[in-house]
Amino acid sequence: MSAGEKVIAKEMRRQEKERRKRIEQANKMLIPVSKKTAMTLGMISFDPSQLSETNDGKQMSDNWIDKRLDDAVGKEKADEIRDAAEDNPDSVSHEVYHIDPNVDDNGNTHTDTQEVDSEGNKVGEKIIVEYFDKDGNRIDPSSEA
Where are the compositionally biased (Basic and acidic residues) regions (predicted)? Predict the structure, then answer.
């Protein structure tokens, strides 16, 4: 390998290490989201169109969440969530919360959620949560008619 090839290879390794570091930082954005009847964990993502592979598995997979749960909600709450999932798997879900950047004909945007399975794959339909006007104010879309 020539000196130039070594420099290129070293730079490629550095860039890959930096990319992995950025992914790990993004993975720490796990946040709790409350619901009346079930515990839900949500992840803020700048590009939720794709859940990425990480060193701990795919984002939002059971393994990925378990590795971050104590830091995200504290050991006591994390154990409570784990116990609830063990006792009744349907009582705990994984969801991605998405801020849709697309603007409708009225200049409004919306947020939505989509369920994620234990392997980190999005399943089911997106459910619209809230609508916002062009200034970011929460609105009732039925009043737009």
Answer: 7-20
Residue 115: which residues within 8 A CB-CB, separation 6 or more? 93, 94, 95, 122, 123, 124
pLDDT in tens, 3-13: 888 888 888 88
Give the HSE-up count for residue 41: Cα atoms under 13 Å, Cβ half-sphere: 31
**57 φ/ψ sector (left φ>0, alpha ψ -120 to 50, else beta):** left
Side chain identity at residue 114, one-letter code: Q
| Parent domain of 9 | 3-144
Sequence-distant (6+) residues with CB within 8 A of 15 are none
> pLDDT tens digits, residue range 34-56?
443 344 555 444 455 577 888 88
Tell me the C-alpha distance between 120 and 50, whole Å. 10
Closest by CA to 112, choosing from 126, 132, 123, is 126
